[in-house]
Amino acid sequence: MRIDIITIFPEICDFYFQQSLLKKAQQAGLLKLKAHNLRDFTNDKHRAVDDKPFGGGRGMVMKIEPIARAVKEIEKEFYPLRGKSKASSKKSRIVLFSPRGKEFNQKMATKWAKSDQLILICGRYEGVDERVARNLADEIVSIGDYVLMGGELPALIVAETVARLLPGVVGHSEDLIGERITKSKGFLEYPQFTRPEIFCVDKKGKACPPDSSSKQRCWRVPKVLLSGNHKEIDAWRQKNSKVIE
Ligand code: ADE
Questions:
Q1: Positions of CATH 3.40.1280.10 in the chain
Q2: What is the DSSP letter of 8?
Q3: R_g of the chain computed on alpha carbons
Q4: What pTM was estimated for this model as a whole?
Q5: Measured from the CB, is residue 177 less than 6 Å from ligand 1?
Q6: What is the predicted pLDDT for the residue at 121?
Q7: What pLDDT band is residue 176 in, cutting at 50, 70 and 90?
Q8: CA 81 to centroid of ligand 1, rounded, Å
Q9: Is pLDDT above 50 for 184?
C-alpha cells in the first residue's frame, strides 16, 4: 500500500514516517509513505497555495488548482490506470480532512486498509475551496469534534491507524486481535500491567520501595494476573474490557 499526503508542511510528516514501526514497515517494503509539498504543484512565482475568499470575510482559503494538480500527478505517478479504465484493479481513495467531515473510526480504517493507495489532503488556514470536497475527494473526514490548525495531525493519525492493520507491520498478529472485538461504542482493550507487582510512592509522591510504612501508598497488580490461571485471566480481561468514560 501507498499513502500520499498533500500538505504545506511535509517535514512534519517526513519526521513521523522515519520513526519506529512505520520506518521499519517501509524498510521491509510493506508500505510506502510520502509527503508532497503542495507548493511544488503551484505555477506562479509566489508559489501561492491560498487566496482571499469570494464574498469577503476573514482569512485566506486554500486554492483548488494546486490541490487538483497534486492529486492528478500523484495518481499519474503511481497508478496511471486509475480513471482511464474501469477495469483497473488499483484502488485509491482521496480523503480531505475537515472538522466538518465524518468522524474517523476503526471500521473505516479496516476498510481503507484494503485500498492500494490513500491520498490524504491536509487543509490549513480558514478552509479549503469547497470544490475540493465536492469534486475531488472521495471522503471528507474529521478526527474528532474539535478544531485543529490543519489536517497534518489527522493525516498522520489516519496513516498510522491504517498502516498498523497491514499484514506484517505490527509484529505479532495477536496484537490486532483486540480489534475484532468491536462494539458500536468504541473498541475494546483490556487493562495491561507489567513489573513491578507493587509500586509505591511516599508522602511527596516520589517512587519508593515497598515497606510496611503507613506513609506510603502502594498500587498492586490484580492478583488474578499473577496466578498463571489462563481461564481466570481471560475471564478477568473480558470483564474489564470496557470503554473508559
Ligand atoms: N482540521 C482541523 N480540525 C480538524 C479535525 N478535527 N479533523 C480533521 N481535520 C481537521
A1: 2-163
A2: S
A3: 23
A4: 0.87
A5: no
A6: 98
A7: low
A8: 31
A9: no
Q: Which of 92, 77, 15 is nearest to 40 (CA)?
A: 77
Percent of the chain with pLDDT over 90: 81
- Locate the DSSP E strands across 72-216: 92-103, 117-121, 139-142, 182-183, 186-187, 198-201, 207-208
Identity of residue 17: F
Cα–Cα separations (whole angstroms), residue 27 to 30, 31, 212: 8, 8, 51
Atom of ligand 1 nearest to the CA of 146: 6
Second CATH level (architecture) for the domain 2-163: 3-Layer(aba) Sandwich (3.40)
Per-residue model confidence as pLDDT tens digits over 33-74:
999 999 999 999 999 999 999 999 999 999 999 999 999 999
Just give the CATH number of 180-244: 1.10.1270
For ligand 1, the distance from its centroid to the CA atom of residue 51, given in whole angstroms, is 20
